[in-house]
TrEMBL record:
SUPFAM superfamilies linked to this entry: Duplicated hybrid motif (SSF51261)
InterPro entries assigned to the protein according to its UniProt record, in alphabetical order: Cell_wall_metabolism_enzyme, Dup_hybrid_motif, M23ase_b-sheet_dom
Protein name stated in the entry: Peptidase family M23
Organism of derivation: Micromonospora pallida
Protein keywords: Membrane, Transmembrane, Transmembrane helix
Gene3D superfamilies: Glucose Permease (Domain IIA)
Length: 228
């Protein structure tokens, strides 16, 4: 009979359809456990990465390195500051000879962490010393000396002579003195930092005496940066 045949076909089709094998629960459970393991490993890796960066920053600074003036051995330079310059910032000017292009040396051995442009370069050059000022520090270099100590060198004449990640030795030339950035004349803006804070600059184990910028102040020092 037609109706009975239709019912039989429907029953067979239903049996075939419902007879498809679903994925075993054990397979889904394994996938869930694998996903949890991956998430846990990712969380551990993130914690380790954060610890590698943060923990050293929380440790107390190490002893002060024996920083030297960042200029050639035996040369005498004027170190100074002025109102509004910011505490502990030091500007260095040579007392003899041409300022433009003088070698800027690493005060102490370390690893370069910045070598590029701070702000904008501007247009002051030896050929056009009264050109337009730039912004910030112009061409600059930052060196990590370990123990959470670092030095900064700003207003360089040209792109730095070192690269990020490069190891430099005390007395090694890292750039040339210039007037890029927000600078009125060729000089070197120099800073020493301990952890997150700037501190008074020390050269050859003695304090420079340049601390606060409440008044104009200058001193003269002779470089003992002779190991290079």
């Amino acid at each position: 009979m037609p109706g009975q045949h239709a019912l039989a076909a429907s029953a067979i089709l239903g049996a075939v359809t419902t007879g498809q094998h679903p994925r075993p629960r054990s397979h889904r459970a394994r996938r869930g456990r694998a996903l949890l393991v991956l998430l846990a490993l990712g969380a551990v890796a993130l914690i380790v990465a954060v610890a590698v960066v943060v923990v050293p920053l929380l440790l107390p600074p190490g002893p002060r390195p024996l920083f030297q003036l960042p200029v050639a051995c035996g040369e005498t330079w004027q170190l100074g500051t002025y109102p509004g310059h910011d505490d502990y910032d030091v500007d260095l000017f040579p007392l003899e000879g041409e300022a433009w292009g003088r070698p800027v040396l690493a005060s102490y051995g370390g690893t370069v962490t910045v070598a590029g442009v701070n702000g904008s370069i501007g247009g002051r050059t030896p050929e056009n010393p009264d050109g337009p000022r730039g912004r910030g520090g112009g061409y600059w270099v930052k060196i990590d000396h370990g123990g959470r100590w670092e030095t900064q060198y700003l207003h360089l004449l040209e792109p730095p002579m070192v690269e990020v990640g490069q190891r430099v030795e005390q007395g090694q030339q890292i750039g040339k003195l210039g007037s890029t950035g927000n600078s009125g004349a060729p000089h070197l803006h120099y800073e020493q930092r301990r952890g997150w804070e700037k501190v008074e600059t020390y050269f050859d184990g003695a304090p420079s005496g340049i601390t606060h910028d409440d008044r104009e102040y200058t001193v003269k020092q002779t470089s003992n940066n002779c190991s290079g």
